[in-house]
Amino acid sequence: MERYFEVLKSNGADIAISIDPKTILTAAWTIYKCQFGCNTFGHSHCCPPNVPTYQQTQAIIDCYDKAILFRCHEMSIVTPLAVKLAREMFLDGYYKVIAFGSGPCTMCAKCNPTTCNFPNKTAPSMEACGIDVFATVRSNGLEISTLREKGEIQNHFGLLLVD
Ligand code: SF4
User: Is the CB of 118 under 6 A from ligand 1?
Assistant: First the structure.
């Protein structure tokens, strides 16, 4: 795993750790935050209701014994980095690896309403798929907090399920 942590760190992550998938927490309330709090709900192939529900995500998580959690201070680099590493790990033989990013997909100026333009270059965020990111990060001993002021250091997290 060290080699993969180095890939993450040389591409903008400041923390990368192995975690037990049992520490990844999903929750029913997450969909409410997307539906009544985000203007990409229903307008992106990487957002609900076009992504796995929290129950489906939990069933997916239950298929894995290992995961990698990483942190970046910029949201925009998290998803591309998770996808890049998943591709590299897949080619190394981790055939089940899947990636989760952070925030809405921003690859296209406007999401294509019929089909995703870059399905192999993007991934849904953890939160879009019903993962309670705050609880998951804290259950792994890392800090995360809501922000009040512009300019505060931001912490954004990506996740890979790996077997
Ligand atoms: S890559 Fe483009 S079409 Fe696909 S989800 Fe992202 S914004 Fe939408």
Answer: yes
